Amino acid sequence: MIAVITGDIINSQHADTEVWITRLKNLLVNWGSSPLAWEIYRGDEFQFKCNIDEVFWRFLAIKSLIRSQENLDVRIAIGIGEENFSSEKITESNGTAYVHSGRLLNDLKSDGHTVSIKTSNEAVDRDLNILLKWSSKDFDNWTVATAEIIHEMIMNQDITQEDLAKKFAISQSSVSQRLKRANYDLIVETNQYFRKKISEL
């Protein structure tokens, strides 16, 4: 099984495309090459695949990256399933993971939520989607400053609060306060729970 994330940028027409698209490409290239593993298409939509145990952390990396730019947000549809056909372009590959993810993004556009997951197990979907709806109450309200800190923590889990303080030219206590406001410890626990539930599929 693999995980496929299909997403689109919210409010992209009100932002400097060159800035967010360059940053998104620089992030995605860490996880594979384009267009085999990821692709940005139709202006503000993107798709990429990853291991199932990494998918929550990958989602958060993208969410925090986009939220760290003023007035932008992102919709993320996570599909877990099989890859029956692997093309040289991810957007031409096929399987249940791709179908789940693509259909789910269309549902998200109409129901107003910013993240959802679809697997072939309804009970797992129910549990994880309740978790995602609750956690998104926080994620959707991250300030730019909070999103920046979270993104650094996700991309470099060995980074210290002292390093973060230097990077952002703020005090260590300010870093600590931002991480507490963002419930970072709870985010780490949620990632562990997510991985456990998906491993049961």
Automatic annotation (TrEMBL):
It comes from the Bacteria. InterPro entries: Lambda_DNA-bd_dom_sf (IPR010982), SatD (IPR032580). Signal peptide: none annotated. One of its GO terms (molecular function) is DNA binding. This is MarR family transcriptional regulator.
